[in-house]
Design brief:
By secondary structure, the chain is an alpha+beta fold. Helix content is 37%, strand content 20%.
Length: 163
């Protein structure tokens, strides 16, 4: 166990102790359009994280070969710890399909720290419009594996202000 002095030193160079909002993307490698078969499992995993008070979730979409989510971590979760727990579950549910199709989840994930209200709005719009932009549907609410349809999973209003 570390002393209080050590903990204080670790916090010394931290930018902020306020909760952070992240835009995360996780893809298949190589990319293959097969996730429609397991999209429900990914949505269920995000829903479980909301229910268990691990995250606040603003938007998400599961595309044929990747998924996006905009969320804020709830204490004591860190982004690496949360993504490990989420993807351990998702990997277990998707492993047979991925093996059959000779693909796997990419190592790691892409994350962006969302710092402003403008960025928050843009990312939300980008995520929910992704299936439309890719020509899969005509409007966001036609895509089942999305916060545009699954509003029951969305945290609204957002628990803190950005900017």
């Amino acid at each position: 166990m570390r002393s209080d002095g050590h903990s204080r030193n670790l916090r010394l160079h931290r930018l902020s102790d306020t909760p952070a909002t992240f835009f995360v993307t996780k893809s298949l490698h190589p990319k293959k359009p097969i996730l429609d078969e397991v999209a429900r499992e990914i949505v269920n995993a995000l829903g479980y994280a909301v229910q268990q008070e691990r995250i606040y979730l603003r938007s998400f979409v599961v595309m044929p070969d990747h998924w996006h989510a905009l969320f804020a971590l709830r204490g004591p979760w860190t982004l690496p710890k949360f993504m490990h727990a989420l993807m351990s579950y998702v990997a277990g549910k998707t492993s047979a399909l991925l093996r059959t199709n000779k693909t796997s989840w990419q190592d790691g994930y892409y994350d962006t720290l969302v710092k402003t209200a403008k960025q928050f709005g843009f990312v939300t719009y980008y995520i929910e419009r992704n299936p439309v932009v890719k020509g899969l549907v005509e409007s966001p609410d036609q895509w089942d594996a999305s916060s545009a349809t699954r509003t029951d999973l969305v945290t609204d209003p957002w628990p803190w202000l950005l900017d």
